[in-house]
Design a protein that fits this description.
heterotrimer; A mainly alpha (311); B mainly alpha (351); C alpha/beta (332); A: 311 residues; mainly alpha; ABC transporter involved in vitamin B12 uptake, BtuC; two-stranded antiparallel sheet; 13 helices; 2 strands; 1% strand; B: 351 residues; 6 strands; 71% helix; disordered N terminus
């Protein structure tokens, strides 16, 4: 329990808020709006799952927002041409993987700092998308909700996200590959001396994040009949914030995906678009401040605990 | 930070050549836009090659330039400050509120804004030095909270506008053909340059970035130096906010979005290592001007604006690769000769 | 040292090479095609994209150069920056749709002082910063049409909400003021909350609509007064399963709303021919440059059509209501 204190405290905070909502704002639990909210944020969860291992490896990727937009638009363009969903999904993931590979190649291959590399790729992809698309919407029409009904489509998306979470959480914990990731994040040089290949692992983590982002982009693209090309969607901040709130240390080497899951849920529930704010009577323009406070609180709590441990 | 155990040979030379290359790139840009973006008519010359255009290009990015200037000492210490854009905006809003709702005279309101910026920087400094938290994550938190507070205070709607001419002259007027805010910028630039390159405090910034523990053992009050860097950043961010408000004659909760990344771009482009320990203020200035000329010059040459962003991204990668090139080449050569690799694991994003 | 010398040399060359543009001469002159620069609020907005198509048609027909550039999201500072760049490029005319009046007006006055003709379209600036405002319809016309439609659909009673562009958008705020005035005619029509911002973002409009329906279960109608807001609100109604219970109307493009209108989600959209708005804007700009149109004229003729000039407003006409009956006839 002590080992995962951080994750348990996030879960407790989430639980507290959910209980408070049940008492003070029961309409929050109406199935339809709740399902819509969760479906809308499911892609964020998937991206956060990918971002978590990047941060555990002591890297960072702030280009996921642009990656997401590019994959979403490309997927939507294919859907508009009549490609079936099952064909577009792998294309979107492959495109994400390629873009992630570029990031990974520059970081792991050339040893460039990930924050600046991903800053550069973020700007490049965002401007390229704006230039080529000029903001024109893409028609997805028939492929909305994969062609299923709204309820079926929403459930598919949510279940997909949960399955991705489950697979990755179990893999991270129980597979040797998962332990390698923690090793690289704790001390890359020691890992290298122990026979691991930190550069390869880092590269693969960027590819993995790109692939998951491609998947997330596709799941977002099918949620409405038209898709806006929107490179400045703030996804990187959402994902990183959720990961940090969920207990993954930016100094690397610790954290797990269940904490990240709680982090995503916590930030979703208090986001400006959440019905929770409406039902609690809090004006929506407080949403960002509340999220910022939670992030800062998580950050301070981490530092406080580390400080107490030192003395 | 993954600092090298000894400065690789030719480190200083590599940095100097980096600045040379950047200067060459800047001159190439400038000359290209001069010829592609200027046209002469019977009524006079118009376009990029006019004093007005040059003045405007500078005017439009003075705020980012200020942020880049104070970002340099922070990055030299091996830290980073993602909150400068949000602090700039929040200080502007404090200024607007004090002037419009509390009916304070402009100088008092402006002082209030500067104090807000300093306090914000102080908050960053406190969390980083007292709780020993990585700057990346602390400033990510303050980035969110200050933006959130800006939106909350203005209720997402409020805009402060129509400031008196006694204030807007800062952003709109020119003295002797040079826009007023450029004078302010030059003063700050000289001050920061002197601080970083001519004082022991400035030397301690680089020392902290190069070897934080060693610096502490050498007797330097690391916490106080870091605090100075972050408080300075917050205060100058507020100043940038005031200039922005005077230039546009309005303050909204969305101001300054993305400015922190633009500032970091200028600093890294200028040759400062993101890990700390080496870098120059004049490099940052070169990087800043290079990006400014690129983004506005394209419009003068009738090319799409988006190309500027894309080229900036590519330029950033090239600049990074160039500084890494000597190390990569020497590793490669070493591997070929001895069969062993001194290849390092990839650098972490933060300690 | 060598580097410092190079730097000084470079700066010196730059200063020498830069000539001061003649500030009192009319820019451009007769030795090349007139250049008309057109600024949208947001060049990624389908409304302005369709305006630009009409503008391009006019430019081709008149033989002038059209420069259409703008920010890719609502960004008043970028608008000012772009206009100042145009001033330095010596364009002949600038036509703007202002996100925020104050900041843009200062730049426009500078343009006027350099002899550049300035006009506004869709969203006005301060009156002394431009010669004419090409208005798609009078604010009363827009507001009255919307409120009358809403009243008709709601049988004159019930709660409704407004989704607007950004909360500072000047033209939307004028329309909102007129809407509130018109509401006096329908005492049982209740506006439940302050206008909700969508910032020209369809997804944000969808979220706002979903939220407001959650907060007010008795809501009967959503009025979206910006073009991305209408499909956004409609999608929210559809996803909430409230088609028929919550009606959607607004200022929307026919193409974006055809499916929703036929599905019965959106009752009607009100708009004007955006292509014609762009077309007229370029015509007016050209006429100002050529001198065939001057301040104080009472009407403006383009081909066979005569447009009324009301003070300094050039009126496109009356707004059109698009619904199931006629929406398929239009393509923009």
């Amino acid at each position: 329990m002590k080992k995962h204190f951080r994750e348990w405290s996030v879960a407790a905070a989430l639980g507290f808020i959910l209980v408070a909502l049940a008492v003070f704002a029961p309409p929050f639990y109406h199935p339809q709006p709740l399902l819509s909210l969760v479906t809308y944020e499911a892609p964020t969860l998937i991206v956060a799952v990918g971002m978590a291992t990047i941060i555990i490896c002591r890297q960072i990727d702030i280009s996921v927002g642009s990656l997401f937009a590019v994959c979403g638009v490309c997927g939507a363009l294919l859907l508009d041409r009549g490609w079936p969903c099952l064909a577009v999904l792998p294309v979107s993931m492959l495109l994400g993987a390629l873009m992630g590979a570029i990031n990974g190649g520059l970081v792991a291959g050339l040893g460039l700092p990930s924050i600046v590399v991903t800053l550069a790729t973020m700007v490049t992809w965002a401007e390229a998308l704006r230039w080529l698309r000029q903001g024109v919407l893409v028609n997805v029409g028939h492929a909305q909700w994969f062609g299923f009904t709204q309820g079926e489509g929403q459930l598919t998306i949510v279940i997909t996200a949960l399955v991705i979470l489950l697979i990755n959480a179990v893999g991270l914990r129980h597979l040797a590959a998962g332990r390698f990731i923690y090793a690289v994040g704790t001390n890359a040089e020691a890992a290298r001396l122990a026979g691991l290949r930190p550069r390869l692992i880092t590269f693969l983590m960027f590819v993995r994040l790109g692939t998951l982002t491609g998947l997330a982009a596709f799941l977002a693209a099918v949620q409405a009949p038209t898709l806006q090309p929107k490179p400045d969607n703030g996804l990187e901040l959402k994902a990183i914030a959720a990961v940090v709130v969920g207990g993954v240390a930016i100094s690397g080497g610790r954290g797990n995906l269940w904490g990240v899951f709680c982090g995503v849920l916590l930030l979703t529930v208090v986001s400006p678009i959440s019905p929770a704010l409406v039902y609690l009577g809090i004006p929506s323009y407080w949403g960002k401040a509340i999220q910022g406070a939670i992030i800062l609180l998580a950050v301070v709590a981490d530092g406080w605990r580390a400080r107490k441990q030192k003395f | 930070m993954s600092s090298p155990t000894s400065s690789p040979p030719g480190w200083k030379a590599a940095r100097r050549s980096h600045e040379f290359i950047l200067l060459a790139v800047l001159m190439a840009e400038w000359v290209s836009f001069y010829f592609a973006g200027t046209h002469h008519t019977s009524h006079g010359t118009f376009g990029f090659g006019t004093a007005d255009a040059q003045a405007d290009i500078l005017r439009h990015t003075v705020e980012i330039g200020l942020l880049a200037l104070v970002m340099t000492p922070i990055i030299l210490t091996g830290g980073i400050d993602l909150s400068v854009g949000s602090v700039m905006c929040f200080s502007e809003i404090v200024f607007g509120k004090l002037w419009r709702d509390a009916h304070m005279p402009i100088p008092i309101a402006a002082t209030g804004a500067l104090l807000t910026g300093a306090a914000a920087g102080g908050l960053n400094a406190l969390l980083i030095t007292w709780l020993r938290l990585p700057p990346l994550i602390v400033t990510l938190g303050t980035y969110s909270i200050f933006r959130g507070l800006a939106e909350a205070v203005t209720r997402g709607a409020d805009v402060f506008a129509e400031f008196p001419a006694s204030f807007t002259f800062l952003g709109e007027k020119s003295w002797l053909g040079v826009p007023v805010q450029v004078y302010v910028f030059v003063v700050v630039a000289i001050a920061v340059w002197l601080l970083v390159h001519r004082t022991t405090w400035g030397r301690s910034f680089r020392a902290i970035g190069y070897a934080p523990e060693g610096t502490r053992f050498a007797g330097i009050p690391v916490e106080r130096r870091l605090a100075l860097a972050y408080v300075l950043a917050g205060t100058v961010a507020a100043l940038a906010g005031l200039i922005y408000a005077s230039r546009l004659n309005q303050v909204t909760a969305a101001d300054g979005t993305g400015y922190e990344l633009a500032a970091i771009t200028a600093v890294v482009l200028g040759g400062t290592s993101i890990f700390g320990g080496s870098g120059t203020v004049h490099g940052t200035l070169l990087g800043w001007v290079a990006v400014a000329v690129l983004s506005e010059g394209l419009a003068y040459a009738n090319l799409p604006r988006e190309l500027g962003g894309m080229l900036t991204g590519v330029l950033l990668i090239l600049a990074l690769s160039a500084s890494i090139l000597p190390k990569v080449l020497s590793n490669w050569r070493a591997r070929r000769h001895t069969g062993t690799s001194t290849s390092q694991p990839p650098p972490p994003a933060s300690t | 040292m060598k580097r410092n010398l190079m730097l000084l040399l470079a700066a010196g060359l730059a200063l020498v090479a830069c000539s001061k543009s003649d500030s009192n001469a009319p820019s451009g002159g007769g030795d090349k095609k007139p250049v008309i620069a057109m600024l949208p609020k947001n060049k990624a907005n389908a409304y302005f994209i369709s305006c630009s198509k009409g503008a391009q048609d006019a430019a081709t027909a008149l033989g002038v150069d059209l420069r259409f550039d703008g920010p890719t999201k609502t960004d008043p500072s970028m608008q000012t920056q772009i206009v100042e760049g145009w001033i330095n490029q010596g364009v002949d005319a600038i036509a703007v749709a202002a996100e925020d009046k104050a900041s843009l007006s200062t730049a426009l006055k500078k343009a006027q002082s350099k002899g550049i003709k300035v006009l506004s379209y869709d969203a006005d600036v301060l009156p002394d910063a431009r010669t004419f405002f090409v208005n798609q319809a009078t604010p009363e016309g827009i507001a009255n049409t919307l409120v009358d439609e809403a009243a008709r659909i709601m049988d004159g009673k019930g709660e409704f909400a407004i989704i607007t562009a950004s909360l500072v958008a000047a033209n939307q705020n004028v329309w909102i003021a007129k809407i509130k005035e018109r509401l006096a005619k329908y005492p049982n029509l209740k506006l439940v909350t302050d206008p909700l911002p969508s910032n020209d973002d369809k997804d944000q409009a969808q979220q706002q609509a979903a939220t407001i329906m959650n907060a007010h279960p008795d809501l009967k109608l959503i009025m979206a007064i910006c073009t991305p807001g209408v499909p956004g609100a409609a999608e929210a109604v559809k996803q909430a399963g409230k088609v028929g219970k919550v009606h959607v109307i607004g200022l929307g493009l026919p193409n974006e709303n055809k499916d929703y209108v036929h599905a019965g989600v959106t009752d009607s959209v009100v708009l004007w021919d955006t292509g014609k708005l762009g077309f007229l804007t370029v015509q007016v700009a050209n006429a100002l440059v050529k001198g065939t149109l001057k301040a104080g004229d009472k009407e403006f003729k383009v081909g066979d059509t005569t447009y009324k000039i009301d003070g300094d407003n050039i009126l496109l006409g009356e707004p059109t209501i698009f619904n199931k009956a006629n929406i398929d006839k239009y393509d923009f």
